[in-house]
Design a protein that fits this description.
- The structure holds 2 protein chains of 2 kinds.
- Helix content of chain A is 50%, strand content 15%.
- Chain A contains 27 helices and 25 strands.
- By secondary structure, chain B is α+β, with helices and mostly antiparallel strands.
- In chain B, strands 1-2 form a two-stranded antiparallel ribbon.
- In chain B, strand 1 and strand 2 form a beta hairpin.
- Chains A and B meet through helix 2 and helix 3 of A and helix 2, helix 3 and strand 2 of B.
- Chain A: InterPro entries: ABC3_permease_C, MacB_PCD, Macrolide_Exporter_MacB.
Chain lengths: 876, 112
Amino acid sequence: MIKRTADKLFRWFCHPDFYPDIKGDLEEIYKDRVDQKRNLTQVRYALDVFLLFRISLLRPIFKNSMIKDTGMFRNYFKISFRNLMKHKGYTAINVIGVAVGLAAFLLINQYIRFERSYDSFHKDPESIYRLTTDQVVDGQLGTRDAMSFNPSGKIITEEIPEVNAHTLTYNIGSQTIRKGESLINEESVKMADEHFINFFGHTVISGDPKTMLEEPNSIVLTESKARFYFGEEDAVGKTLHLYSSFDEDFKVTGVVRDIPLNTHFKFDMLISISSIKDVLEREGWNAFNYYTYLRIDDGTDIAMLEEKLIPIKNKYLNEGSSLFFNLQPIQDIHLNSSMTFEIEESGSKDAINFLEIISIFILVIAWVNYVNLSTAKAIDRAKEVGLRKVIGAGKKQLRMQFLVEAFLINVIGALVALIIAQIAAPAFNSLVDTPILGDLWKDLTFLKLLGLFTVVGTIISGFYPATFLSNFKIISVLKGKFRNSKSGVGLRKGLVVLQFATSIVLIACTLIVIRQVRYMKSMDKGMNTEQVVAFGNPETMPGDDDKYEEMMGVFKDRLLKESSITSVATSSIIPGGESDEIWSTSGGVKIVGLTDRLEATTYIQVVDNQYFELLDISFIDGRNFIKDNLLDDTTAVIVNQAFLDRFNLADQNVLNEKIQFGRDPENDKYNIIGVIKDANRTSLKKSTEPTCYFYDKVQINSLVKLSPKNVAIGLKKIDEIWSEMFPTATLEYSFIDDRFDRLYKEDRRFGAVFSVFSGFALLVAILGLFGLISFIASQRTKEVGVRKVLGASEPHIVGLFYREFIILIGVAALIGVPIVFFGMNSWLDNYAYRINFPWEVIIVAMVVVIICSLITVSARVLKVASLNPANTLKYE
Amino acid sequence: MKKYQLGEFEEIVLLTVGVLYNEAYGVAIKEEIESRLKRKVSVGALQSALRRMEKKGYLDSRQGEANEKRGGKPKRYFTITAYGTEALKYSQDVRTQLWNAIPEVALELKAV
């Protein structure tokens, strides 16, 4: 048995010239061993065979190859290679087409995979859910909030058996940390409880995962941060001083592996949430400012589980509260959710799906090109095919020949694609603003996909030309009467229409995205943010509010003395921030005597009397706060139009009416002293938030308006005065205009990705067009000759060809325009402030496509039109 | 530049082919080497050396008779070519020269 298998193996790999006598030797030795009654003779035989596997004894790869029936393969490759070298132009177009298409497809694919992989690397990601809070009024789903109450995770885990673990986190925001002489601002700092590390399964490099977040004032660093602050030494046991928020020492208790980019919960530092224990206890079931994650048993019905959460909410929240607990799978957070107070701006599922479709289109267009070009070449190959058939080639062999050719094009294309992708990788990374591409030739999934699509591409793009070309009739071909059949033309035109339609759609979409972004940037926000600089004030010194207020007053006065500074204001938030920066209340609000309590989120901002003036926010009714009018203005409130609109009170006089929050009739009442015009605090994607403005002399942020001519001097002065008065604190200022700009980053990125890939699609489509026009031109050479003999002029002939392509583009537009209209209209609907569907964009897109294609057509047709009819017609 | 390329194992095989004269085929060579040198020779190593030397032109081969014991497969007999003999001579000469060049003292010391 073993011997027989070994024999087969030997016969397969051994050079056939050597096989008989070596086999004889083996046989003789085997028999000798059997005669000598040695044991394990068969195994020894197999061992001998194994030792015979030597390069000098191997079968050669091509001639008498180890693979069966490959005698012709070498020939196929040889002929294919010669053919490709003979038509260098065609080969180049084909290779570039395939390479560009493949590169674009794979790059987009890489990006899509990255976006879809969010939060999939955690331990058992399917069982992790985030506890979020929905507001439901009269069965209507209102605001969906990503946050939850801080005790809820613990209570739910205790009371519901299906929930077996929980962790509580808080996004504390940036912290200032001292390193040597300099102060460093750490942007990505979160807080978490002691379950966090094991809950998500973060890899711990140093420290005890169970206890590292237990003690108050503990801090866990990522590997790179630990190296940044403490070099190669073990960071555990060292201390860091956090200036903002705490002004206390924190003990490093652990170091974890750096957090991958594809998670919504990114952090460089993690502070134990017990450090704010008093806040947690005070807020309890009154405020939901925390992110809670739960681990739920596999196979649990989530809808049923949410039902079970209702009694819990009824027990701990007020009876009849409009807030409901909701469970959200962690992998849905990035692409599948649009909640307020999200940790980071989430991605757009539509954009990703759209990109995927584009990428497939680009790839298909590239393959279609190959089909077009190679069938267009048919006339050149017809005689070759005929002769081969005469000599005895079968259809199968001819097909194989053309498939090998397609394979060579695809393989070379794939190599070029790899080079293109690698060169484009840095540009692509900055385009999508995430370093998702590294060295592609080391990326195994990328290479696998590249290989896969080379093979798939060979089959798809090679099959039709191979069948088409191998079906030629010998006799007609060799008689010289061969013409391309008409039947292929319809198909080829259809493919070109598809390419045009794709190009039109992509160009139009790009322009619409760019216009929408420009519209949002240029739209009147309801305030004037030019030359307004904003920065966070130094942290309050605990227990010394009066002194702090005094210092900030001095600071403000000193700023105002500078001629380069026109005004200074203070506010709880800086305009142009993310949606989660503003404070809010969901406890319901009413205007006493005028309306019922409205269960909806109301946003709250605290400002001083300078704020509205500084930003040019105009009053519709009433007055501004008056400084030091404490008696009145501590209970005064200014509201915006959106707030009144929600009560349908837009036209009514509400001055001196009272606003009351919550359900307790004993709650404070606030006197409305003014109504302001709506001003957009955040992205115009969202409509204006219904906001109440309260008064305070000093808040955590400052806004400074500089005089337009002295911006640089103004900034210098702020810096000087700041470092004189607050030497330990860092000044981090930004222009409000820049902040608003940053909000549209995602949309701009979408626009940029779009424009790049529509460029690719157009390029590939033009290559395809060149293929078709070459085909048609060569087919109609004789017709052109006859026309010229009969007196047609060159421009007339060129015009004939133009007309044909304009018709094709027209058909493409008929297909493309509805797609653009429906697709982009629904995209624009995502924006609270959107442009009307811009029809002129469609015309621009068509003009671009027409110009590009006419140039391409001219390049080929002018040559045909200028041929001497004597030459083209001499064989007739 | 080496004039003749002849490895140590190749030299042994080549010499053995010479020893066996007209009877040098795979198994015979293998057994001869094993009995004279008291070392194991695998079929693989032997065959690849034989084919290599045939390609280099040191050996010539002819097909012999088949028999039952060999599963009906013919023997392949190897003989040394003139070129092969030259290579062996050359190798021997080089060694003799080297022997002669060793100072007496070195050898005596070794003997002690």
